[in-house]
Amino acid sequence: MARCVPISGSRLGRAFERFALGLVLLCLSTGLLVAQVGGADNDGDEARFDALLSTPNAYTPTPEDNLFATTPGLEQQAPRAHFTANVLGPVTFTSNAEEASSGGSNSADARPLVGISWATPVADLPLRFSANMRAEFERYPNAPDANVDRLRPTARLQYVDPDNDQAYSPYFAYVSRVDFVPTFASEFATRHDFNFGMNKAFNFDGAFDRVAFSGNSSADTVWSFGVTVFFQKRIRNLGADSYAGFFIPSVSYVISPQWNVSAGSELEYRPFESVGGFDRRDWFIAPIATLEYAFPSAWFGDRNAVLLGRPALDIQVAYERSWSNLDAANFTAWYPGAALKLGWRF
User: Fold this and answer.
1) How many helices and strands, by DSSP H and E, does the chain display?
2) Has residue 58 got a pLDDT over 60?
3) E strand or H helix at 257, and its extent?
4) What's the whole-model pTM score?
5) Which of 222, 252, 255, 262 satisfies CB 3.0 to 4.6 Å to 206 for a cystine?
6) CA pair distance 44, 36, nearest whole angstrom
7) What integer pLDDT is reported at residue 44 of this predicted model?
8) 225, 228, 276: which is closest to 43 by C-alpha?
């Protein structure tokens, strides 16, 4: 398989790195945070984005920060400090744009994402630090009241075994989200998440034999099975604060250098702090399947492929179901669609 080729060394590249690092640190320091339209505590949109960024694609770089344990590089040590930039262009159909308990709108959904992340080893310790900033845009032609813009800054400190990327990999993450009236006109909701969890991957070759332990077993992996478990404290500026437990199994299969398929499911239980004597309790499930085609470098030439972001096309189908003792928080929704994925590493 071809490897992602970094863009570095030029004066423009170094200037971009300084600008990007400043942007990430600024966004983290100002505490820009988010909540969701329709269901302020629903995490399905983040899971669908992460599913697109977690595919076993050897070409398109993606951040070392993801919900799914089968994400390439998630449990590996960063060889050096580096930046990764990503652009996603999903166009989907949703059966419930407002995430309403009944009567939700069927609509197309244009949801572009622009993100930049930074990952670095921490001295000589078996730790990796990463920071990530995403800008997200949601547009529903048939449900304009559900349109929203978001900023999602994160920071993550993770234990990684430098000699075994299939080891247990605990982490602490700060994840936040800010919702804006389009187009980033005014902030209307914020939330702060503090997550403590663990990733674990099990990698197999094409004969379904366990891949030998090493610091980077991606090149020999055909099948990967993983699980993410974490606990969360959520603080919101509107509504009740809450706790949550997540269990996220995932699997990926490399069909060929160009084709791969992956699937995962987010399972969540969220109890809220009591408000007026009412104790809200939510259960949420979001299974997601993604089929990906990575465009061959030969179509563009290797250098041009790197400059274009190693493009890939993803077909994704997702389903969401929320159960709650608060009637307004019960909903179901389907999300079939396609996305163009681009990535650069500096």
Assistant:
1) 3, 13
2) yes
3) none
4) 0.88
5) 222
6) 10
7) 93
8) 228
> CA–CA distance from 257 to each of 13, 16, 53, 57, 341 (Å)?
29, 30, 17, 8, 16
Dist CA 18 CA 23 (whole Å):
9
Q: Are 25 and 31 in contact (CB under 8 A)?
A: no
- Distance, CA of 38 to CA of 104 (rounded, Å): 10
Distance CA 158, CA 76 (A): 10
H/E stretch holding 290: strand 281-294
**Alpha helices (H) along the chain:** 11-30, 44-53, 302-308
Report whether 334 contacts 95 (CB < 8 A): yes
Q: In terms of residues, how long is the chain? A: 346
Cβ–Cβ under 8 Å, residues 112 and 137? yes
> With contact defined as beta carbons under 8 Å apart, do 129 and 159 qualify?
no
Domain borders along the chain are 11-345
Radius of gyration of the chain measured on its C-alpha atoms: 20
Which ranges in 238-330 belong to alpha helices (H)?
302-308
Q: CATH homologous superfamily for 11-345?
A: monomeric porin ompg (2.40.160.40)
**pLDDT 10s digits, 242-289:** 999 999 999 999 999 999 999 999 999 999 999 999 999 999 999 999
